[in-house]
Design a protein that fits this description.
The protein has four domains: about 10-215, Ribonuclease H-like superfamily/Ribonuclease H (Nucleotidyltransferase, domain 5, 2-Layer Sandwich); about 240-360, Roll (CBS-domain), CATH 3.10.580; about 375-555, Beta Polymerase, domain 2, CATH 3.30.460.10; about 595-705, no CATH class. The protein is built from 28 helices and 17 strands. It has a five-stranded mixed sheet, with helices on both faces. It has a four-stranded mixed sheet with strand order 14-13-12-15, with helices on both faces. By secondary structure, it is α/β, with parallel strands linked by helices.
Length: about 700
């Protein structure tokens, strides 16, 4: 069967819409007289008439208009099907009442002595029933009317296929609203109309495919040639491999002096400019640049200024990025050197060369991150993003820890948000709204900011801009930008935040002055909703634009909050101790469906505790585990319980991640609840201990804070 990722968003699905016209409606006797294929998010359309070698029923001709005379000179089915099968390939097929068409095609293949391989398919009729459409009939024409689409001009195969594609496209946002985002979830949803499936199966129609035809693993070609998987790039950051401090030459220095510098330092590149310059003003020269200059101008090239051969703009990578990001960037652009900039600055702080990466191999799963950066449309972003669960599964199989995988997911979510911002900017410019009125930054908040995201995610983002009043011209421009970012991310597979934590909302958008006013309000007159915003915003990370805009605000806020005992008490009180889900008999207590919300009972409480401790003790570590580790190095009393908390957090993160991967594979939207039936006896025992370790967390935090 074809290898189709379970997590592919419906809006990004590249498929073929298929329809047939037949001599009649009796599955046992009807023959195909026309096949039509229309690309869905793919270019092209194809149709062929077929001589059925039997008369066409007048009732059928009255519907599609095809007569015996029209097909008299047409090729037989066996002469046409090979071409159609080649076009279908491994694509998903979209159709309306498609079980009928596939049953007829299967019968034709059997008559012609041809192999039959049923494609993966989705049926708009079943999906309309899932959406609760109340129609007198579920014909394709009725669905077009229901969705306010143009009526079908004629009921020929290609026209019906094109109409089906339009119906599916119009259904996708409605399905998203029902929590059906992906191919896997749509297949699962189709089986909810079991009574209809059974009725059609009795009439001889094909049944919808099950999830077994899909895959949530990367293709086998992604493995290394030696059969292993190189996990190093997923475990280490660029900062661990880069050369630092970076080597600079002034623009007017000679190429001769640069060549001598390269030889003396035994390096292969130099930056041109000043170490205090922003990366946008810095250039780079490499050994190859010097060789090209010598080949072109001879020895006199050595007396030319280095600025004459410098390359601008620099290609940069963040110091906190995982190494696989750098590998993908070099592979896509065909370059050998990268400038390394800080996570919260635009200054060059190091250099990374291909020599540093010689022992690492770039495989297609490594290129996931760079593919996000290169995606030129929301559907392309969605197809790349669909690979994330497969990469996570591979990393688990290689023993990469859940916190490290969560860091990778968060980094890619940040990259996805950055790419959405770039496409949104382009869309605004194309719509005549112009360029940004002032410098700004797009932030990811919450778990994405802490770099500990899992697969059950929604949008948490914000915008800070240099100047402008609420509802002023600048704010209105950024409101449009935030709305476009949110729409793109939702289409890609990162749903709208139900709590409204998105830059399209006024509360998560504003100038530096506006944000400063909010933070002052939080410190002096906090309400419960304000404290929730503090939790989310304190974990912010800039993913696009000027990183200094929000960094200064956050530094000032953290410094003031550290000294504000009343505020810290309110922050602790906003995370009350939760009941432990263990019965009197020592059994884990799950929800009615046998699942237990581990985010609520463990993860959120650990995150909140680590955040408060980090604020109180002036620690700017980003992740929960790093915050707990930083606090433990301080001389503030007995903190052994924090070590237990860190272990409980890491173990629970692993349980939730594996559960989410199972959810995706089963065509279910992933969430933070774990099915207890999926846990081993050992895992249940450790989970009970972990739940107990966070049962009195409030007392531990109050002690460590005050």
């Amino acid at each position: 069967m074809p290898s189709i990722l379970t997590n592919t968003p419906l809006a990004a699905l590249q498929a073929l819409a298929l329809d047939t016209e037949t001599t009649g409606l009796d599955i046992r006797k009807a023959r195909v007289i026309e096949i039509g294929l229309s690309g869905h998010n793919l270019p092209g359309a194809w149709s062929r008439l077929i001589n059925p070698e039997v008369p066409i029923a007048p009732a059928s001709t009255s519907i599609h208009g095809i007569t015996d005379a029209m097909v008299a000179d047409a090729p037989r089915f066996g002469e046409v099907w090979g071409e159609a099968r080649g076009l279908i390939g491994s694509h998903v097929i979209i159709g309306h009442s498609l079980g009928f068409d596939l049953a007829i095609l299967k019968g034709e293949c059997q008559r012609a002595g041809l192999d039959w391989q049923e494609p993966v398919w989705l049926d708009t009729r079943f999906l309309a029933i899932v959406l609760g459409a109340r129609l007198p009939d579920f014909s394709i024409g009725a669905l077009c009317a229901w969705l306010d689409l143009p009526a079908i001009a004629n009921h020929r195969a290609l026209a019906d296929a094109q109409a089906t594609s339009a119906v599916f496209r119009a259904m996708a946002p409605r399905l998203r609203e029902r929590g059906i985002h992906t191919v896997g979830e749509a297949l699962s949803a189709c089986w909810r109309v079991q009574a209809v499936i059974n009725e059609l199966a009795r009439a001889g129609w094909s049944e919808p495919p099950t999830l077994g035809v899909l895959t949530d693993r990367e293709p086998a070609s992604d493995a290394r040639q030696d059969g292993g998987f190189d996990s190093y790039p997923y475990q280490h950051r660029v900062s661990a491999l880069m050369s630092a401090p970076p080597a600079f030459r002034a623009p007017l220095d000679t190429i001769r002096s640069a060549l001598e510098d390269l030889a003396r330092r035994q390096i292969s590149s130099l930056f041109v400019g000043s170490a205090t310059d922003a990366a946008g003003h810095v250039g780079i020269i490499t050994e190859r640049d010097i060789l090209r200059a010598l080949a072109r101008d001879g020895a006199q090239a050595l007396d030319q200024p280095v600025d004459s051969i410098a390359t601008r703009p620099l290609v940069t990578v963040r110091s906190g990025a995982y190494v696989y990001r750098a590998i993908g960037l070099m592979a896509r652009l065909g370059i050998r050197h990268l400038a390394v900039v800080g996570d919260d600055s635009s200054e060059v702080i190091g250099a990374l060369s291909q020599r540093d990466l010689l022992r690492l191999r770039a495989q297609s799963s490594l290129l996931l991150g760079d593919a996000i950066d290169a995606a030129d449309s929301p559907p392309e972003m969605g197809r790349v993003w669909a690979r994330l669960p497969a990469v996570a599964r591979s990393l688990i199989g290689e023993g990469i820890t859940a916190p490290d995988i969560a860091g990778i997911i968060a980094r890619e979510l940040g990259a996805l948000t950055r790419r959405a911002a770039v496409l949104a900017e382009q869309d605004m410019a194309a719509s005549g709204l112009g360029l940004a009125p002032c410098p700004y930054a797009v932030l990811v908040l919450g778990s994405a900011g802490r770099e500990e995201s899992l697969l059950a995610m929604d949008q948490d983002n914000a915008i800070v801009f240099a100047e402008g009043l609420p509802d002023g011209p600048e704010d209105r421009w950024f409101a449009q930008l935030g709305a476009r970012i949110a729409t793109i991310l939702n289409e890609v597979g990162v749903p709208f935040c139900k709590g409204g934590v998105m830059a399209r909302e006024p509360s998560f958008r504003g100038s530096v002055a506006t944000w400063r006013g909010r933070m002052d309000h939080w410190l002096s007159r906090s309400s419960p909703s304000d404290l929730l915003n503090v939790d989310i915003v304190f974990d912010a990370r800039t993913v696009h634009g000027d990183p200094t805009l929000f960094l200064g605000l956050l530094t000032q806020f953290a410094s003031a909050a550290r000294q504000n005992a009343a505020f810290l008490k309110l922050l602790i009180a906003s995370h009350p101790d939760a009941s432990v889900p263990i019965s009197l008999f020592g059994n884990l207590k799950a929800d009615a469906d046998g699942r237990l919300d581990l985010k609520r009972h463990v993860l959120s409480r650990a995150v909140g505790a680590a955040r408060v401790l980090a604020i109180r003790h002036g620690q700017r570590a980003r992740s929960t585990l790093d915050r707990l580790a930083a606090v433990q190095t301080l001389d503030i009393g007995e903190l052994s319980s924090l070590d237990e908390l860190a272990q409980a957090y890491a173990r629970t993160l692993g349980l939730v991640l594996q559960s989410q991967i199972r959810d995706v594979g089963e065509g279910r939207p992933p969430d933070n609840r774990v099915a207890l039936s999926a846990l081993s006896t050992l895992e249940r025992g450790k989970l009970k201990a972990d739940l107990a370790s966070v049962s009195d967390l409030g007392d531990v935090v109050r002690s460590a804070v005050f």
